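Shipment paperwork, digital attachment
Item: protein structure file
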Amino acid sequence: MPCSTGGVSTAIRGLATFLVVIVILSAGCRRSSPEAPRTEPPAGVPVVVTTATEKPMPVDVTTVGNVVPVTSVTVRSRVTGVLEQVQFSEGQDVKVGDVLFTLDRGPLIAEQRRAEAALAASSAQAANATREANRYAELYRQGLVAQSQYDQLRSQAKALEAQVRADRAVVQNARLQVGSSAS
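Attachment content:
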């Protein structure tokens, strides 16, 4: 019977691989150093016994965390302006109505004066328009002027009276802003 050389060489290769694995495994199982000498455990720590006493002890706790305020509010200014003075310190308790900041009053006072001047001008114009409309009313009754002229002067007087009311509101607002800036 003819013998196949492929089967023998495969068997030899398998046997050689097996022997190599055995040699590697047996090399890892050998002891590399002699056994270390045993030493005695250290002697025990002395223990002292005493009677317990009751007394106050300070409690200090060190921890990491966040501080959360009891109450938190948003502070908004009624008016805008340049901050002149801060009248509280951080962490200080404040009450409703406490003055927290003082603003520069100069620009606010100037705005109030400008509004008062505009009110004076519109008041004078409204008074003049009302007198003019009253004169034209008499002329209209006499038939000396057209009704359209009289109506035009009357509506102009009413418009200027409305402007006076608007200017009074601006003056009132400017006074409030000056008062809110704290002195």
